[in-house]
Design goal:
alpha/beta; Aminopeptidase; Glucose Oxidase, domain 1; 2 domains; eight-stranded mixed β-sheet; 16 helices; elongated; Peptidase_M28; zinc; metal-binding; carboxypeptidase
C-alpha cells in the first residue's frame, strides 16, 4: 500500500508540471519535517515531562498564593528559580507591579433561623474583595430571593431594604461548554453585592458558580465600583443555596445570620516572572505564553492556575529538548494577580508598549489542565485560516480544535497596548473544571499527569509553528 501511494503521488506530481511538482514536494517535505518535530515534542513530554512534578511542588510546598500574600511571594521566588534551573532561557527576570492585598480572616459562618428558632448552618465563604460584616460580628436579617440583577431592579425598595439579597440563578446545564454558563451567571457574583448595597440591602448571598451539587462554596471577585454603601458578599454552596431556597418557600420570614472578618489592606509590591528565548531569525517578533501564578486562598490552586503556569514553563523546555530553537522570540510569563485585579497582565502590556515591542501572538492557559482539545483564537479571519492549516499536525494529538473565542484575561491588555496579530487560549475538556473552580477542592490530587503533560506539548507545538511560520 505504501509503494502504491508513492507511485500515485509521483504520478500526480508529474501531472502538475515541473514547477508545481517542485512546490508540492517542498510542501510535503515541510509537513513531514513539522510532523517529526511535533512528535519529538510529544515524546519528550510523555516520557520525560516535568510539568507534573513542578506542579506538585507549587501546590504542596507553597500552596495558596493570593496576590499580596506570603504564598504569592514564595511562588515568585520559586518561579524564577525553576525557570533558571530549566536551562532553556536566555534570561529570566522579574517585572514589578503593585497588587491588591485582601485577606479573608477567620472562617466565615452562616446560620438560618426559622420559626423554630434553631440555627441551621450553611456552607459559605466570602467573595474576594468583600467587606466584613459590621465589626466582624454576626449580622442577622431577613432574605429576599432573586434570580437575576434585573429581577432585583424590578423590586420595590421596601422589599429589599434591611435584608440580604439572595441571588440564586443556577448554571444553564443545557450548554455543552460550561464556560458559557459561567459567563452568564457570573454577573450576580461580580455585581450582586454592589447592586444590593445600592438598594439598601445589608448584604448579598450568591449561589456558587457551578453545576456541581455539593457543599463547596466558590469564591471569586466581587466589585463595588462607585457604590456608596458597601455591604458584605458571600457565596453559598449549591446545596446550601437549594436548602435556603426551599426553607424560604416554607417560611418567607426566616432570617440568616452571617459572620465575616475579611478586609482589604494597602497594596503590596509583587512581580510577574518572565523567561525569554531570543528568536534565531526574527528576534524583534515576540510570542508570549503564560498562566497566572496567583490563586485564591481556599486551596492549592492546582487547576486554577497552577497547571497553566507549569505548562507555560514546560513548553519552552520541550522545544529545547527537541532541538528546536524558536525563530521568533518566545517569552514565558507567570502573571501575578489575575484573580482579583489583573495588575500583572496590565503591567506586562504597559511595558510592552513602553518598549515599542512587536507582539506576533500570545497564548494563555487558564482553563485547567484537563485533556487537550485545541485552542480558541482572537484574530482576523485570514490569520485564523492560516492557523487552521496546521490542524492536521495537531489533530493526531487530540489538540486540533480551533475556534474563535476569548483567549485569556492576562493577555487581553496587549490588544490595546501593542495590537498583537493573534491571541490564543489553550482549550481543554471543560466539563469538570467548574466543579472545583475557586474552591477548597482545587488540589494537586485532581490533576492527571498525562493530561497535564499533553497540554504542555500542545502549547509547545503551537509555539513552534508560530515561531517558524509567523502570521
Amino acid at each position: 500500500m505504501r509503494l502504491l501511494s508513492s507511485l500515485l503521488l509521483a504520478g500526480g506530481l508529474l501531472a502538475l508540471g515541473p514547477a508545481s511538482a517542485q512546490m508540492a514536494q517542498s510542501a510535503a517535505a515541510t509537513n513531514t519535517a513539522d510532523s517529526l518535530a511535533i512528535r519529538k515534542i510529544y515524546d519528550e513530554a510523555l516520557l520525560r515531562g516535568q510539568s507534573y512534578e513542578n506542579l506538585r511542588y507549587l501546590c504542596e510546598q507553597i500552596g495558596p498564593r493570593l496576590a499580596g500574600s506570603a504564598g504569592a511571594a514564595k511562588a515568585v521566588e520559586w518561579g524564577k528559580l525553576t525557570m533558571e534551573k530549566a536551562g532553556c532561557y536566555d534570561r529570566v527576570y522579574l517585572q514589578e507591579c503593585q497588587v491588591p492585598h485582601w485577606v479573608r480572616g477567620a472562617k466565615e459562618k452562616a446560620l438560618v433561623f426559622g420559626n423554630k428558632g434553631k440555627g441551621l448552618p450553611l456552607a459559605v465563604c466570602a467573595l474576594g474583595g468583600s467587606v466584613a460584616t459590621p465589626g466582624s460580628k454576626p449580622l442577622r436579617a431577613g432574605v429576599i430571593e432573586v434570580k437575576s440583577l434585573a429581577e432585583l431592579k424590578a423590586l420595590p425598595d421596601a422589599a429589599v431594604r434591611g435584608k440580604f439579597v439572595f441571588f440564586n440563578r443556577p448554571f444553564n446545564d443545557a450548554y455543552i461548554e460550561q464556560g458559557r454558563a459561567y459567563g452568564e451567571a457570573g454577573d450576580q457574583r461580580r455585581a450582586g453585592p454592589a447592586e444590593a448595597g445600592r438598594r439598601g440591602a445589608v448584604g448579598a448571598l450568591v449561589r456558587s458558580l457551578t453545576s456541581a451539587r455539593d457543599n463547596y462554596p466558590h469564591t471569586g471577585t466581587t466589585q463595588y465600583g462607585d457604590t456608596p454603601t458597601q455591604v458584605p458578599g458571600a457565596a453559598l454552596s449549591t446545596l446550601g443555596a437549594d436548602q435556603l431556597s426551599q426553607l424560604l418557600q416554607a417560611d418567607p420570614k426566616l432570617e440568616v445570620e452571617l459572620t465575616m472578618s475579611c478586609q482589604t489592606l494597602p497594596d503590596v509590591t509583587s512581580y510577574n516572572v518572565v523567561g525569554e528565548i531570543k528568536g534565531a531569525t526574527h528576534p524583534e517578533q515576540i510570542v508570549t505564553v503564560g498562566g497566572h501564578l496567583d490563586s485564591w486562598d481556599l486551596a492549592q490552586g492546582a487547576h486554577d492556575d497552577g497547571t497553566g503556569v507549569v505548562q507555560s514553563m514546560e513548553a519552552l523546555r520541550l522545544l529545547k529538548a527537541a532541538g528546536l530553537r524558536p525563530e521568533r522570540t518566545v517569552r514565558t510569563v507567570l502573571f501575578m494577580n489575575e484573580e482579583n485585579g489583573t495588575r500583572g497582565g496590565e503591567k506586562y502590556a504597559q511595558l510592552a508598549q513602553q518598549n515599542h515591542e512587536t507582539h506576533l501572538a500570545a497564548i494563555e492557559s487558564d482553563g485547567g489542565g484537563f485533556t487537550p482539545r485545541g485552542f480558541t483564537a482572537e484574530t482576523a479571519p485570514a490569520n485564523l485560516r492560516k492557523v487552521a492549516a496546521w490542524q492536521p499536525l495537531l489533530a493526531p494529538y487530540l489538540a486540533g480544535q480551533l475556534t474563535p473565542g476569548h483567549a485569556g484575561t492576562d493577555v487581553e491588555p496587549l490588544v490595546a497596548a501593542v495590537h498583537p496579530t493573534a491571541l490564543f487560549g489553550y482549550k481543554c475538556d471543560s466539563q469538570r473544571y467548574f466543579d472545583i473552580h475557586h474552591t477548597a477542592a482545587d488540589t494537586f490530587d485532581k490533576v492527571n499527569r498525562r493530561e497535564l503533560e499533553l497540554g504542555g506539548a500542545a502549547m509547545a507545538s503551537l509555539i513552534y509553528l508560530l515561531g517558524k511560520y509567523g502570521l
